[in-house]
Amino acid sequence: MVHKTGYGEYAIAHDHPRLRTLRKEVDSLHRTGIRVRFIGERSALPKDLRDLISQAASRTAQNQRMDRVIAANYGGHWDITEACRTVASRVQSGELEP
């Protein structure tokens, strides 16, 4: 079940089937040495799901057998925005010239 928490954000009940499925899949992927990475704009996702995504990525970060990349709330605009942020950060740090 999804609950509105205020400020336009929604929370997914802790025992929601999709969260249980993701937890179960991450356990299986971790046991088999697969790293889980997520791409996309996470800020629009419910906090429960963002937390689970972060936990999954952290838990499997050292795995090297294979990468599984999951695109959630992803579009080509996201790639362009992230590339611009990276370049701006490198300019700000002095690594790149403007």
Kindly describe this structure.
This protein has 98 residues and is α+β, with helices and mostly antiparallel strands. The protein is built from three helices and four strands. It has helices at residues 17-31, 47-60, 76-92, and strands spanning 2-6, 9-12, 34-39, 66-71. The strands form two sheets. The chain has a two-stranded antiparallel ribbon with strand order 1-2. Helix 1 packs parallel to helix 2. The longest helix has 17 residues, at 76-92. The radius of gyration is 16 Å and the shape is globular. Mean pLDDT is 81; it is low at 1-12.
Note the topology.
Elements: E1 2-6, E2 9-12, H1 17-31, E3 34-39, H2 47-60, E4 66-71, H3 76-92
Parallel strand pairs: 3-4
Antiparallel strand pairs: 1-2
Mean pLDDT: 81
- What oligomerization state is this entry in? single chain
Structural class: alpha+beta
Which overall shape is indicated by the principal axes computed on the Cα atoms? globular
By DSSP (H or I, 4+ residues per run), the number of helices equals 3
Uncertain segments: 1-12
Give the radius of gyration. 16 Å
Q: Major β-sheet, in short?
A: 2 strands, antiparallel
- Tally of strands: 4
β-strand percent reads 15-25%
How many angstroms does the end-to-end distance come to? 48 Å
Instruction: Give the proportion of residues in helices.
Output: 40-55%
Short précis:
The chain contains 3 helices and 4 strands. It is an alpha+beta fold and 98 residues long. Helix 1 packs parallel to helix 2.
